Amino acid sequence: MKNIILIAPPAAGKGTLSNSLSICYGYLPLSTGDMLREKAKNDESLREAMKSGMLIDDNTVFSALEEQLNKIGDSLYILDGFPRTVEQAKMYDEVLNKLNRDLGVVIYLDVPKDELSSRVTSRLVCPKCKRSYSTRNKDLLPKVDGLCDDCQEVLIQRQDDSLETFEQRYNEYLEKTQPLIDYYKNKGVLVTINSSLPDETFNLASELIK
User: In the chain, what are the helix, strand and coil shares in percent, each to the nearest 5?
Assistant: First the structure.
């Protein structure tokens, strides 16, 4: 089994795929935000920086990441939406070399822009467990209208799930992420999956990690 980096535009299904792989194969989803919050418990300057909304420098981010990788040992993990830049990808390579770990596979979820915008405007999320649902896809409808299947919390539509916000996020994604896609493609570790159908996406990803 291989460790995974997930790259995808907004609303492409990174969270859904990460959750499915975690449940089925025992992957640990790693979030740099969670790592920094944990590190901040014992680091007052970092805690204050995060409270103020300051951009955290890459050295601090990778220090937290290295600590987490050491902590989980040989457990399989997924990096969801990280690294975000080529510079971060190179720094991640250095950490892996230092820890004698393999990169694994980089999965790029490719979805047409019009499909993504439709997903965004029809998306509902659970405010507690963050599971996503859709009002337009029968396979992603909650079992009880308006309630999360897992938590029974009332589902909400996020404030940033608007066409205007989507356009901004998508354009920013294209600008920052395309060089990263090219970087991993040149390394021979990038695999592109057409993620229009969630079930097919999971099956294809399952084949890639074995």
Answer: 50, 15, 35
